[in-house]
Structures are given as structure tokens and as C-alpha cells.
Specification:
Length: 507
């Protein structure tokens, strides 16, 4: 009996000894099926395409939240928060991963650790329709550090996770209520002489003071018209400074004075510059040769009272070809008398106005005939004017139908004896038209536009001019007035290039 018990004890001791010796050896790490075997690590970070200029974000309140899967679609990074640097661009902190191929499946920019303000849409979602690289997409982690660009879109009020392709409830709703900034309506508007330019681009500087009195400054390029400018809701005070055409205009408001409904208009005012002369040159064998000149003279009240037109003779000598003398009734131009270089009267134009000071009738004497132009203005959704012409030496009449847009003539349709003759369409820049500020109407109202033509396209049906200008290139001074205009011309009907002219303006 004793012998059997000894054998059993010896066997147990042997097993214990074996186990004890095995415990001194490291156990082998068995990878989870489908997982890549960890080898050398790499470093990856993410960059974002969104422009946060002027928005109240900084590295302490805006972070990225990312989810990443490996090649076997196993999640290796789940809703991980990464800090951001916002120094002119948006870039996340580096993330260390084993080298290999991965997919970015979710990416959000979160404000204050709670509210999703931007998200990368997932392919197939409503918000991904116009993106070239929606989620999920592959990226590679290698020995060299890499930066992966990500396209994100703003999560606006009323938009939920499903519109970005994320599961319902995966991030917060009511974004606008949680939005730390408000969109304030601002537009640039300048009074130049008697003319209001209320749809112009400009530079805006916004200075913001927080509750501690600390000041920050941001810069915004305003487009023509009303702009939505983001401002921090928690700020104490704002100062807006608009710069345009050599003039600054500023406004300082406390937070309680700022709302999202009012349109804040800035820009100031300044006197209109007077055009003194314009010299026209023609391009000849690669160089511009003087062709003609116009001089403008003003009375002590600033009214245009004389215009001299100069041309060049066969010997290239300048001579006075036409003089125009202006007569006024108060500040309204009443008559222009025209004389040739021999001081002989060759024509005139008389003007009549309505109670608003708009010209409604012009009678022009020229070449032993009389042209009467009657103007009717149209208001409402499609503002414009109709000009009816009658001729003392013709039985037919001519009508022009003008459409206005933004203070400019957008189109001019001509009818001869009731039949459609031609239609011309115009495009304009944002520069100041100096002729408008001379209060100098003509039979076609061509000098009454706020801005300068940069393109015109004519469609001709019954009457066609021999040449037409088709390309306009301006150089402007710091005050917004044209210094030079290079214009190209073409012959009709073939639309073949004919010549190039350059006009130099002096003020």
C-alpha cells in the first residue's frame, strides 16, 4: 500500500515540475484570424479641404474623429479623437499604425467635443453627390510618414447623419443651435458723386473682441451684393472695415446690436473724378500710333461745358474736327451745339426731362435732317427703357428696347419699321464708367451705365454694321477708373479681325 502511494506522489511531483519549467518560457502570441501580423509601424495624418478663415475655430475646440478598418474590414481605429493644427490649413495629429493598406470609413470635425460641424460624406449619400473622393477610400501606411487628404462638408441646420451616409444617431442634430458663430449679412456700397454703386466687390476686415477684451482680426473678400460673414456669437464687440477704391469705411457694433436679419452696408462716399481727355491709338506694325484725341472742359460748378474732338490729317498733323458747346438750365443739360473746325454750326441736340430728372426726349439736328428720340422707362421685375426714333427725311421709324440689370444695359433690341433688326447683349466689369458722371446723354443712352463693357455680342437679322468691337481689356487706377482700354474690332458678316485700338484716359 505504501509502495502504490509513493508512486502516485512521484507522478504528481513530475507533472508539477514539468509545468513549472514550462512557465519560465514565453507563450507564443497567436494573431486573431484575419488580422495582419504586426511588423514595422508607420505614421499617418489627415488633412482637410475646408476653409475656416474668419470662423471662430482653434486647435483647442475643434478635433477630428476617425474610424479606420484594415484590409479584412476589421475595425482597427474606432471613433478616435485626433487633435488638429489650424495654421493656414487643417491637419490632424499623427496616428501610428502597422504598415499596410487601410480604409477610412468615418471622418468628422467636432466642436467642443460634442457637436459635429463638418463630416466627410459616404459614397451613395445625398451629400456625396458632387464629391470626387467620398468615403470609404483606401490609403497606405508605409515606413515614410504620409498625409491623407479628406473632403468634408459643413453640417448645416436641419441636416442629419443619414444625409452624409452615417447611421441615424451617430452624431448630433440641431447643428445651427450648437453653432458657435452666426452668419451676418454685409455688403459693400459706395456713393461716387451722385451715383450709388451698391453691388461691388470689396475687402472686409473684421475685428472681434471676446468677453475678456482680447482682440482678433480676420479678412474677408466680399463679393458683389450681400455676403454671409460668420461671426462668433460669444463675442463682446465687432468692428467692420470695408476698403474699396482708395476709401475706407468702418462701423463698430456691440454684440447686442448685431443680428442675422439686417443687411449692414459699408463703403463710404467720394466725389466723382472728372475725365479731362482721352487719346486713341491704332495698332500699326506692332506699335500704337496716335489717331485721335478728345478734350473735356468744365465750368466752375463742375459741369461739362465744352468737348473738343481732334483728328489727324494726311500729314499726321492734329486738327480740330468738332467742338461741342453745352448749355444748361440749372444743373440739367438743355442743349448741345456742334461746330466744325471752321466754327460753322453743323448740328445740335436738345433735351427734355421728367420730374425725376430722367431724359425723356431728344431732338437732334444733323446733316439737314432731324431725329427725334422719345424715351419711356419701365420699372418692376424687368426694368428697362424704350426709345422711339422718327426721322424727318424717312417714312420708317426705329425702336430700341433696352433691358437694365444692376445699373447697366444688359441687352438692346432694335426694330426697323416694326421688323426685328438686331439684338446686342452686353457684359460688364465692376469698374467705374467715367461718362456716367459727366451727365452727358446721347440718342442711344449709351453713356448711362454704371460700369464698363467687357464683352458685346450682336445678332443681326436685317441691318448689319460693317465692323463691331468684340474684345475689351481695361487697366484701372486705384480709384476704380479706367486708365487704358484696348479694344479689338472685327468685320461683318465674316467676323474677321480688322484692327486693335488703345484709348488712354486722363483725369
Amino acid at each position: 500500500m505504501k509502495s502504490v502511494l509513493s508512486k502516485q506522489l512521484a507522478y504528481v511531483f513530475f507533472i508539477f515540475t514539468v509545468l513549472a519549467s514550462c512557465s519560465k518560457q514565453p507563450l507564443e502570441q497567436i494573431p486573431t484570424p484575419g488580422e495582419p501580423v504586426p511588423t514595422t509601424s508607420g505614421v499617418v495624418s489627415f488633412s482637410v479641404n475646408q476653409d475656416l478663415n474668419g470662423a471662430p475655430y482653434h486647435s483647442s475646440n475643434l478635433t477630428a474623429v476617425v474610424t479606420i478598418v484594415n484590409k479584412q474590414n476589421t475595425t482597427v481605429v474606432n471613433e478616435k479623437t485626433l487633435t488638429l493644427t489650424l495654421n493656414g490649413s487643417i491637419k490632424s495629429e499623427s496616428l501610428s499604425l502597422p504598415q499596410g493598406t487601410y480604409k477610412l470609413t468615418q471622418f468628422r470635425l467636432v466642436y467642443g467635443g460634442m457637436n459635429t460641424h463638418f463630416a466627410a460624406p459616404i459614397a451613395g449619400s445625398a451629400k456625396a453627390a458632387n464629391l470626387q473622393k467620398p468615403l470609404a477610400f483606401e490609403f497606405t501606411v508605409s515606413a515614410a510618414s504620409s498625409v491623407v487628404p479628406v473632403d468634408v462638408l459643413k453640417v448645416s441646420a436641419g441636416e442629419g447623419p443619414q444625409q452624409f451616409g452615417y447611421p441615424a444617431g451617430s452624431f448630433d442634430s440641431h447643428q445651427e443651435e450648437n453653432n458657435p458663430y452666426m452668419n451676418v449679412k454685409i455688403k459693400a456700397s459706395m456713393q461716387i458723386g451722385d451715383v450709388l454703386y451698391d453691388s461691388i466687390p470689396a475687402a472686409l476686415t473684421v475685428t472681434t473682441w471676446n468677453q475678456q477684451g482680447e482682440m482678433s482680426t480676420s479678412y474677408v473678400s466680399l463679393k458683389a451684393g450681400i455676403n454671409q460673414v460668420p461671426l462668433p456669437k460669444a463675442a463682446k464687440k465687432f468692428k467692420f472695415l470695408v476698403s474699396k477704391w482708395g476709401t475706407n469705411d468702418e462701423m463698430t457694433l456691440d454684440r447686442a446690436q448685431v443680428d442675422t436679419v439686417t443687411v449692414y452696408s459699408l463703403g463710404g462716399s467720394k466725389a466723382a473724378k472728372k475725365l479731362k481727355s482721352e487719346l486713341t491709338y491704332a495698332l500699326d506694325n506692332g506699335r500704337f500710333v496716335a489717331e485721335s484725341k478728345i478734350d473735356y472742359a468744365y465750368d466752375i460748378q463742375g459741369r461739362l461745358f465744352r468737348v473738343y474732338h481732334y483728328k489727324r490729317d494726311a500729314a499726321n498733323r492734329p486738327y480740330l474736327s468738332l467742338a461741342e458747346n453745352f448749355q444748361y438750365n440749372g444743373n440739367r443739360l438743355e442743349k448741345i451745339s456742334r461746330l466744325n473746325g471752321k466754327s460753322e454750326t453743323v448740328g445740335s441736340t436738345e433735351f427734355a426731362y421728367d420730374q425725376q430728372g430722367k431724359v425723356i426726349k431728344m431732338i437732334q439736328e444733323e446733316d439737314s435732317r432731324q431725329i427725334t428720340a422719345t424715351v419711356t422707362y419701365h420699372y418692376g421685375p424687368l426694368p428697362g427703357a424704350s426709345i422711339h426714333y422718327t426721322y424727318s427725311d424717312q417714312t420708317y421709324t426705329v425702336d430700341h428696347a433696352l433691358l437694365f440689370s444692376g445699373g447697366n444695359t444688359s441687352s438692346d433690341t432694335q426694330y426697323v419699321a416694326g421688323d426685328l433688326s438686331q439684338t446686342t447683349y452686353y457684359e460688364y466689369d465692376g469698374g467705374i464708367n467715367p461718362y456716367l458722371h459727366m451727365a452727358w446723354p446721347d440718342l442711344s443712352l449709351s453713356r448711362m451705365t454704371k460700369n464698363n463693357v467687357v464683352k458685346q455680342t450682336g445678332h443681326f437679322y436685317t441691318h448689319m454694321p460693317q465692323v463691331e468691337p468684340y474684345d475689351f481689356s481695361y487697366t484701372y487706377d486705384a480709384d476704380g477708373y479706367p486708365k487704358e482700354l484696348v479694344k479689338k474690332w472685327r468685320a461683318l458678316p465674316g467676323r474677321q479681325y480688322t484692327k486693335t485700338t488703345k484709348t488712354v484716359f486722363e483725369y
